[in-house]
Amino acid sequence: MQPAAVRFARSSSTVRRATLPGLRIVLAALLALVPFSSPFATAPATAGQTPTTLVIDTTAEAESLDPALVTQFSGNSIMNSVFDSLIERDYAGALVPMLAEAWSFPDPSTIEFKLRQGVTFQNGEPFNAASVKFSIERLLDPELNSPLAGGWPKAFQLRPTAAGPATGSIEIVDDYTVRFHLATPDATIFDALATSGAMLPPQYYSQNPEDVLSTRPVGSGPFTFVDAVRDDHTTLARNPNYWGVDTYKGTPLVPTVVFRPVPDAGTRMADLLNGTADMIFDVSPDDLSTLRGRAGDGFQVVTGNASAKLQFVEFMPKKATDPLADRRVRQALNHAVDVDAIVTNLFNGLGSRQSSPILTDALGYDPSVPAYDYNPTFARQLLADAGYPNGFAATMDLSSSDNRSEALAVIGQLQQVGVNVQPKTLELATFNANWSQDKSSDLRFARWGGLQDPAVFLNFTTVCGGYLADQFACDKDATTLAQQAANTLDPNVRAGLYARVARLLHDDPMGIYLANDVSIYGVGPRVSGWRGPTGRDFLIPTNITLQ
């Protein structure tokens, strides 16, 4: 049984354009943006509403509807509504059982999962140990080329690669018991499972080509796929047989949910206030006062987990002689950016400057590691010491789904110390596909979520040999400590090791550390019961009723 076919029609609706908010005095000399001038309508929110359909404006189209190929928050909100994993992060960011009821360690390099019984996928296939083995082996199959595979531990590579032989295996003990065998103990596998371990019905996903699988998803989650139109909407329906109503996800109550990609923040805000949308992603901080001023009409502002996401600019030098390959240059660029002013003036004070990729309240966070101070004079001195007294030129990749104002502010401040950066705006799919040393620009302006445990982020972007790491900017000592942290299951030992990693990556930065990115959701007056974003900052539309 296959879900309804996807229509590939392009939306004919026009997208209203909102101008970028102007910067206040502290940043006015650095870049000129057109001030926002059009007031939002204050009419009652009734346009286009139906009593059984929840409409959510997201920031971007999902790259795919195959969970192995989705990396961004808008797409992950859809994926986590359709699929379940063995373990996931709940609303507080804690790891909790889902399709795995429990796990144990027969030996330090083996994890045994006891699976829930009586669960069926949305097409009727049973969930069992064979589903687990198939799902993880498919995800890690090099032929699929999943961008998520790079976050899995090297001690659990299931097939030989150019880098070496297979290092792990999955053993089916019985229908509801499965064992993961690793070459060495590696605690990071739990975060990898929670991040990218969606469980799939084996028959459906083995018998259909990728063009079907990427457009007609089938999982075990609270909502089922109905249809999708590229760049217009993805429609889901309540799964009346959802097994997990007693888990953190809760109960699907709304009969129909429509996710709509709306890249423009002003358009999303207008949609919320006029009733075209019931919930929206990424409210612009400049619009917070407007939305809060409508609290009497039932509108709400909901903020995400402060330790969930990091905004940063990754250094991607292409050779050992590039300016960004020099530690002094990397330190200089951190001193050149006034992050506090950006947070105050662009983000209404939501967020704080971070000292390393180990975010505030994350495992291993060390408050004694100071954030870089804004010191352009010292930045110029460091550049001169590195042999660049007149600065240098560089390029920066930006995603079209992100607000450009922060990136432009960073670029303007770098220019003040002689570093002239040319921005390159890329569609989200291209931006993610180009996230490698050979394809990227010199700099990448990015956000990364799920940082309560820093393991996956470090494995991807920071440790030498990481899937998205730069060989000329990685720190070998930090790599060693991160590997030691992965090879112990004791959270206290891991925290101590990550604290040392934080200090090393402060002194030898892998990027410009900006702020913890606090997501802001707008909620309309019809919505009741939503528990807020998950610990990974996804919006799962369970527990919601419409008034």
Defining key terms:
D-Maltodextrin-Binding Protein, domain 2, 3 domains, Dipeptide-binding Protein, domain 1, 16 helices, globular, single chain, 547 residues, seven-stranded mixed sheet, five-stranded mixed sheet, Dipeptide-binding Protein, domain 3, alpha+beta, 19% strand, 20 strands
The quaternary organization reads as single chain
Total separate domains: 3
What separation lies between the terminal Cα atoms? Answer: 34 Å
Main sheet: strand order? 8-9-10-1-11-18-12
Q: CATH homologous superfamily of the largest domain?
A: Dipeptide-binding Protein, Domain 3
Structural class: alpha+beta
Description of the molecule:
By secondary structure, the chain is an alpha+beta fold. The chain folds into three domains: 52-83 and 221-303 and 525-546, D-Maltodextrin-Binding Protein, domain 2 (3-Layer(aba) Sandwich); 87-207, Dipeptide-binding Protein, domain 1 (Alpha-Beta Complex); 309-516, Dipeptide-binding Protein, domain 3. It is 25% helix and 19% strand. The protein contains 16 helices and 20 strands. The protein has helices at residues 25-28, 73-82, 129-139, 188-196, 202-207, 210-213, 265-274, 288-292, 327-335, 339-346, 376-385, 404-415, 428-433, 455-461, 476-486, 491-507, and strands at residues 53-58, 87-89, 95-97, 100-107, 110-115, 169-174, 177-181, 223-229, 233-238, 256-261, 279-280, 300-303, 309-315, 392-399, 419-426, 443-449, 511-516, 520-523, 527-528, 545-546. The strands form five sheets. It has a seven-stranded mixed beta sheet, sandwiched between helices. Strands 15-14-16-13-17 form a five-stranded mixed beta sheet. β2 (87-89) and β3 (95-97) form a beta hairpin. α9 runs antiparallel to α11 (376-385) and α15 runs antiparallel to α16. The longest helix has 17 residues, at 491-507. The radius of gyration is 23 Å and the shape is globular. Mean pLDDT is 88; it is low at 1-45.
